Amino acid sequence: MDIGLAFDLKSDFVAPAGAPDDLLEEYDSERTIAAIEAALSRRGHRVRRMGGGKRFLAELLAAPPELVFNVAEGRGSRSREAHIPAVCEMVGVPCTHSDPATLALALDKALCKRVAAAAGVAVARDRVVRSVAELAGLELRFPCIAKPLHEGSSIGVRASSRSDDATALAREVGRIVGDYAQPALVEEFLTGPEFTVGVLGHGAQARVLAVMEIRPKDDRTADFVYSVELKRVWPDHVEYHVPPRRPPELLAAVERVALGAYRALECRDIGRVDVRLDAAGVAHFIELNPLPGISPGWSDLCILAEKSGVDHDALIGAILDQALARIGRR
């Protein structure tokens, strides 16, 4: 099969002067793209690097492939992750991963939670604020956590993001609004253990690939923030447990929440769902990434897959197989 690879490299962009150091965190490295290309080629496919943005559009119109393997994050708006699949839909070329509606919705953390909650999935109470002034009369219980409303890869989530009082929260909201030019999502902070769940497939056939607990080495779960700084040096501070060393009934609850959110958002092929327990041990949906990073040995999805016996080539193959089955090519 002739497969076009859609992607955005970190080196394709230049952060503005004075921008936070994580502004381009979600974009891929050459190493990641080479690994995906090699995995697809080893399955006997012809792989063509098409890039992202206007370059992808020009290549698609000039010589459309049979299928696009999409890992492009896009640029410039809260619907940026929908750009590639929307163009593919327009010209009638199938692509892997979720459709543009799901990708646009999932990147807005508040809208994503509203859809999941409407489907009966437990979520933490939250409020979207566009300025520090909008924190007046906040009816949320401390501690709280503040995040950029529409970013991925923990962009804007720092060790300081958890706040115990109004002063600290105002400082974090001001930082987010100022540094990332977007609203902040303020949530009641869940103090239980945190999990991330890999899910394959779509609809009723969606199944859990693996559950991974993200556990701080110092065991301070109650105030643990899986921040961008920590992710960069995770071997020093975090242990990844696959399967988690937790009772079966707790893990079943985590899986139910993850599958409930994944199906409510109508995700396709692959996704990674973050789930955290509250102080009473109730599992809550945090957020969902329908375009999860697949950097071998580094991205959470790859780590949980590898720890469950699925190497990088097999993971790429599983994503492709799900897409091919969905479009009737298998």
Strand order of the largest sheet: 10-9-8-11-12
Largest sheet: 5 strands, antiparallel
The total beta strand count reads: 12
Unreliable stretches (pLDDT < 50, length at least 5) are none
Report the top-level CATH class of the largest domain.
Alpha Beta
* Shape designation: globular
CATH-defined architecture of the largest domain: 2-Layer Sandwich
Helix count, DSSP H or I runs of 4 or more residues: 11
Kindly identify the CATH topology of the largest domain. Answer: D-amino Acid Aminotransferase, Chain A, domain 1
Helix content: 25-40%
Overall average residue pLDDT: 95
Structural overview:
With 330 residues, the protein is α+β, with helices and mostly antiparallel strands. It has three domains: 2-96, Rossmann fold (3-Layer(aba) Sandwich); 105-122 and 190-326, D-amino Acid Aminotransferase, Chain A, domain 1, CATH 3.30.470; 126-188, Dna Ligase, domain 1 (2-Layer Sandwich). The chain is 35% helix and 20% strand. It has eleven helices and twelve strands. The protein has helices at residues 30-42, 53-62, 83-91, 100-107, 109-118, 166-180, 228-232, 234-237, 248-264, 300-307, 312-326; strands spanning 2-6, 46-51, 67-70, 126-129, 144-148, 162-163, 184-188, 194-200, 207-216, 238-241, 270-277, 283-289. α1 (30-42) packs across α11 (312-326) and α2 packs parallel to α3. The longest helix is centred in the C-terminal third of the chain and has 17 residues, at 248-264. The relative contact order is 0.14. The mean pLDDT is 95.
